[in-house]
């Protein structure tokens, strides 16, 4: 068999987050706080809309960017939520936020273009950039409270010399830290981004799970330079439905439709009708979950701080990025493997999210309170044993 495969594909790997989750899933009695998977079920009215779509024989191709009614509803939904100003022509319905990220980066990157990625961050943006022959430049934000500052961004841009800096990726509220950006922080970044005419791939899939303040977006400041990535996986507990959205200026939307078309043709038709129901009659669905996430977050912070864990500013999403207590192994892989082996509790090592993540663990509180109580008991035993 020939083995001269695509060299970029050979150099990337299956996510170590997924690999570790698969590994610990085989252990009976394991409590997993690993994946970003809401433990809620999809709202009943959304499920019924999908059933009706099947009964109505909605099983044919749709336009590549999605059925017109859904594009209109998505624009209206997010405009109302976040004070944006998009029209249906600015929206592409994608196969989850994951496909949306790949589509956006493919549409804007030329070979050797630089994409700036602040870390710690969910690693998906890195292989997507490399697969499009772009170059990744990282900024470790751990010294700045896990927030990208305008000063660090501008210094990094200048350090690239003659290279073409094409885009910066932002994810907020952030996975893994739960940190998000406030008005002043976004305003400062917008000035630098506008000055250097960068694209922003702005992954805001956790936007409806912002807790301390209402969610703001760079699309409120520099909409002509922002590609917003959105989706229903987190807001409506629809991870398995695989439905997301890209919202962007018309010129880039027209280019992204090409990438999107040749990747997936269009999202699953019946799923689009379920999404239409979520967009039109499920505007408050996320708030039911958000209230419980806040209770879970507060319980974990109150329980873990006495054990010596220090948390980043957890303003959104459903993760705590916790600094490992000084008496425990500081290598995050060693920590999570020992914890899983001795206490049957699985967390994700901070190093999986890039520079600045070592010495931390990500704890997902998208889990029942019963499992969170078990997790605290097992973490307490583990820390006390050290």
TrEMBL record:
Signal peptide: none annotated. One of its GO terms (molecular function) is transaminase activity. Residues 30-379 form the Aminotransferase class I/classII large domain. InterPro entries: Aminotransferase_I/II_large, AspAT/PAT-like, NHTrfase_class1_PyrdxlP-BS, PyrdxlP-dep_Trfase, PyrdxlP-dep_Trfase_major, PyrdxlP-dep_Trfase_small. Its EC number is 2.6.1.-. The keyword Transferase applies. It is an enzyme of class 2 (transferase). Keywords: Aminotransferase, Pyridoxal phosphate, Transferase. Its cofactor is pyridoxal 5'-phosphate. Belongs to the class-I pyridoxal-phosphate-dependent aminotransferase family. This is Aminotransferase.
């Amino acid at each position: 068999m020939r083995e001269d495969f695509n060299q970029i594909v050979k150099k990337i790997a299956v996510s170590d987050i997924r690999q570790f989750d698969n590994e610990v899933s085989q252990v009976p009695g394991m409590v997993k706080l690993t994946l970003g998977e809401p433990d809620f079920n999809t709202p009943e009215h959304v499920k019924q809309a999908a059933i009706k779509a099947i009964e109505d024989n909605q099983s044919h191709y749709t336009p590549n960017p999605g059925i017109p009614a859904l594009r209109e509803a998505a624009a209206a939904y997010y405009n109302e939520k976040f004070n944006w100003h998009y029209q249906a022509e600015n929206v592409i319905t994608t196969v989850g936020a994951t496909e949306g990220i790949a589509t956006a980066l493919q549409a804007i990157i030329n070979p050797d273009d630089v994409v700036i990625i602040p870390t710690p961050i969910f690693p998906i943006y890195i292989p997507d950039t490399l697969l499009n022959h772009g170059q990744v430049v990282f900024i470790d934000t751990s010294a700045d409270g896990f927030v990208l500052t305008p000063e660090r961004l501008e210094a990094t841009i200048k350090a690239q010399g003659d290279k073409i800096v094409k885009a910066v990726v932002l994810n907020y509220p952030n996975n893994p830290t739960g940190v998000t950006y406030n008005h002043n922080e976004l305003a400062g970044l917008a000035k630098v981004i506008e000055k250097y005419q960068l694209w922003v791939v702005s992954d805001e899939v956790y936007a409806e799970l912002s807790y301390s303040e209402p969610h703001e977006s760079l699309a409120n400041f520099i909409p002509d330079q922002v590609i917003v990535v959105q989706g229903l996986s987190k807001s409506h507990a629809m991870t398995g439905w695989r439905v997301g959205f890209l919202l962007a200026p018309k010129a880039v939307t027209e280019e992204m439709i090409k990438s999107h078309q040749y990747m997936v043709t269009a999202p699953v038709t019946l799923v689009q009708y379920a999404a239409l129901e979520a967009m039109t009659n499920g505007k408050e669905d996320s708030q039911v979950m958000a209230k419980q996430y806040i209770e879970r977050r507060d319980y974990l912070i109150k329980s873990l701080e006495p054990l010596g864990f220090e948390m980043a500013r957890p303003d959104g999403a459903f993760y705590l990025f916790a600094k490992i207590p000084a008496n425990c192994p500081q290598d995050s892989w060693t920590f999570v493997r020992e914890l899983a082996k001795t206490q049957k509790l699985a967390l994700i090592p901070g190093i999986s999210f890039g520079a600045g993540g070592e010495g931390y663990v990500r704890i997902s509180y998208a889990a029942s309170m019963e499992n969170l109580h078990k997790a605290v008991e097992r973490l307490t035993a583990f820390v006390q044993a050290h």
